[in-house]
Amino acid sequence: MNFAYLNKMESCRDPGTRLYSTSQTTVDSSEVRTFRALAHKWWDEQGAYAPLHSMNDLRVPFIRDNLLKTLTEHQPGNPLSGMKILDIGCGGGLLTEPLGRLGASVTGIDPVDENIQTAQHHKSFDPILTKRIEYKACSLEAIVEENIETFDAIVASEVVEHVTDLETFIRCCCRVLKPGGSLFITTINKTQLSYALGIVFAEQIAGLVPKGTHTWEKFVSPEKLESILESNGLSVQTVAGMFYNPFSGYWHWSQNTSLNYAAHAVKSTAQETTVSAELVQSGESGTPS
Ligand SMILES: C[S@@+](CC[C@H](N)C(=O)[O-])C[C@H]1O[C@@H](n2cnc3c(N)ncnc32)[C@H](O)[C@@H]1O
Q1: Which of 8, 170, 193, 285 has a CA positioned 20 to 30 A from the CA of residue 79?
Q2: DSSP character for 111?
Q3: How far is the CA of 247 from the centre of ligand 1 (A)?
């Protein structure tokens, strides 16, 4: 595992596009240790990641259907063909693969090298994914500069509750997203119920997820997430509650967002126009005036 990038000065742009350097990383080294220890378990459908396998029943159609609304036409069988998606914190590729099978070109990134090795290995079983999925072991911060406004959609599923600096994480998501592009997040609300069920029950009593997987302080409410998204020029379209039944092993949608929830936000196109105009006025743009 190469930790060098964790300490290096990362660069990122703020919503006003000024380039700034930050020594902040969104990667928490204790999270890296936790996920590294489980890196060989991703594709065990009955194991530690069973709830993430079954979460695909909700999150894949959620992403697909919201993206299809933005397309005027699509190829039957490959509905997301032509779309570039960044799957941040892709782990072993549980969500990356079905998005690739829907025809999208998906880049999966994860700071844990061992996760990427598992994802690469599993991808090799399905030749259709060879050209559609590219994996990289890196943080989001490390790839922002070379990917400004590159992706039609960004997915961060069950990831934001593991990052150290959510504001920086969202700001970087916004920078790599095309104007009009979609950001999809699934995460856990910060409530008393999520402490009782998400940590005490799931980790300490039922053993649904390994102990120490989650830290309640890192959970985020939909209201707080929405405020960070909006301050970065993203408008929230949908916030939907998700409920996991540990006895059946299935997820279903719920109006109640006090535990898990999914959010879909769209990057404004106006912000980019304003920013471009400001750059032209200040003479910073490469565009001849
Ligand atoms: C609960 S897993 C979710 C994996 C995958 N998104 C899925 O749902 O199947 C969280 C993942 O986020 C990654 N991760 C942790 N901190 C991260 C960060 N700061 N930036 C990107 N990914 C991170 C972990 O290595 C881990 O693979």
Answers
A1: 170
A2: S
A3: 25
